[in-house]
């Protein structure tokens, strides 16, 4: 039995009952919108999708190769193709375009930490 049905059968008919049912329904719809824990940021969400494309075991080197391919896709097809602009192995930096904050340069250590998070949360 739903909560709304329970209130409907428990309380006498009237405007107060209708108001309570409306408030309960509003609360239930608000509760469904709530997400347990923090949602991944745009880069983590992007990396989650990207590591699903990788065949075989996911390693940091394999991720860097895939990010380099994404940078080439961006060069060929424009900015809509990929948020990854460049992977610089000499300086150990990945240039990424955040949807709100614009161009960011992230170190390999940051990317490695995000990869670890993605591996742990891949099946959720």
Short description:
The protein has 124 residues and is an alpha+beta fold. It has helices at residues 3-10, 15-33, 42-53, 60-77, 108-120, and strands at 84-88, 93-98, 102-107.
SSE arrangement:
Elements: H1 3-10, H2 15-33, H3 42-53, H4 60-77, E1 84-88, E2 93-98, E3 102-107, H5 108-120
Helix pairs in contact: 1-2, 3-5
Describe the structure.
By secondary structure, the protein is of the alpha+beta class. The protein has 5 helices and 3 strands, in the order ααααβββα. Helix 1 runs antiparallel to helix 2 and helix 3 (42-53) crosses helix 5 (108-120). The longest helix is centred in the first third of the chain and has 19 residues, at 15-33. The protein is elongated and about 75 Å long. The model has no long low-confidence stretch (mean pLDDT 91).
Describe the structure using short key phrases.
single chain; alpha+beta; 3-stranded antiparallel sheet; elongated
Count of alpha/pi helices? 5
Biggest sheet strand order reads 1-2-3
Write down the overall geometry: elongated
Kindly state the number of beta strands. Answer: 3
**Spatial gap, N to C terminus:** 30 Å
């Amino acid at each position: 039995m739903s909560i709304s049905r329970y209130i409907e059968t428990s309380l006498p008919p009237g405007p107060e009952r209708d108001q309570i049912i409306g408030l309960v329904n509003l609360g239930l719809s608000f509760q469904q919108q709530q997400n347990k824990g923090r949602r991944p940021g745009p880069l983590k969400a992007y990396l989650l999708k990207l590591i699903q494309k990788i065949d075989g075991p996911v390693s940091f080197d394999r991720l860097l190769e895939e990010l380099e391919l994404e940078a080439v896709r961006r060069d060929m097809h424009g900015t809509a193709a990929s948020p990854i602009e460049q992977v610089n192995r000499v300086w150990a930096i990945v240039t990424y375009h955040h949807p709100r904050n614009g161009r960011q340069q992230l170190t390999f250590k940051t990317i490695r930490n995000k990869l670890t998070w993605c591996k742990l949360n891949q099946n959720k």
